[in-house]
Each structure stands twice: as structure tokens, then as C-alpha cells.
Amino acid sequence: MQVLGHLGYKNVDIETLAELVSRGRLDLSRSISEIVPLEDVAKGIEKLANHEGDPIRILVQP
User: Fold this and answer.
1) CA-CA distance, 4 to 53, in Å (whole number)?
2) What percent of the chain stands above pLDDT 90?
3) Domain ranges of the chain
4) Measured at the alpha carbon of residue 62, what is the angle toward residues 60 and 9, in degrees to the nearest 5?
5) From start to end of 12-62, where are the E strands?
6) CA-CA distance, 20 to 34, in Å (whole number)?
7) Contact between 1 and 22 (Cβ < 8 Å)
8) Which of 3, 27, 39, 44 could form a disulfide with 58 if both were Cys (CB 3.0 to 4.6 A apart)?
9) What is the C-alpha separation between 55 and 48, in angstroms, rounded?
10) Is the dihedral of CA 61, 49, 12, 27 positive or negative?
11) How far apart are CA 38 and CA 59, in angstroms?
12) Rounded to whole angstroms, how far apart are CA atoms 58 and 48?
């Protein structure tokens, strides 16, 4: 797993979260508002910036 970008967290925080998720110790599914394809990343960022649909976390699928 590789994280190339994020907002509001330090890299070590993302590494810790990824480790917990991969071990089944943390379920983030309820905090994921949407998954957007890479070509729609600008739309995802716009939704977050404008609080469109009350987003919590939008993931980008490469």
C-alpha cells in the first residue's frame, strides 16, 4: 500500500492507520463517503471543499 497524498494528517499517522486497517483492527468503512476514480479526483476535492453531500472522507481509486 502506498499513500501519495492526504490532507490534515502526518505520514506516520497514515502509516499507522493503514497498518491497523490491514490487520483488521480498524474498520473505516463508515467514514468513507465516496470512492472516486482517479480521473474524477478534482471533483472529489471540490466536494470536500464545498461540503457537498456532507462528506467525511473521499478515497481515490487509481
Assistant:
1) 25
2) 31
3) 1-27, 32-62
4) 40
5) 34-37, 58-61
6) 21
7) yes
8) 44
9) 6
10) negative
11) 9
12) 8
Inter-residue contact 56 to 32 (CB < 8 Å): yes
If one counts every other C-beta atom within 10 angstroms of the C-beta of residue 40, the result is 16
Q: Which residues of the chain have pLDDT under 50?
A: 1
In Å, what is the CA distance from 6 to each residue of 14, 22? 9, 18
Locate cell 494528517: which residue? 9
Locate 54 and state its grid cell. 456532507
Structure confidence at residue 5 (pLDDT)? 58
7: number of CA atoms within 13 Å, CB side? 9
Region label for 61, one of left (φ > 0), alpha (ψ between -120 and 50) or beta (otherwise): beta
Average pLDDT, the chain: 84
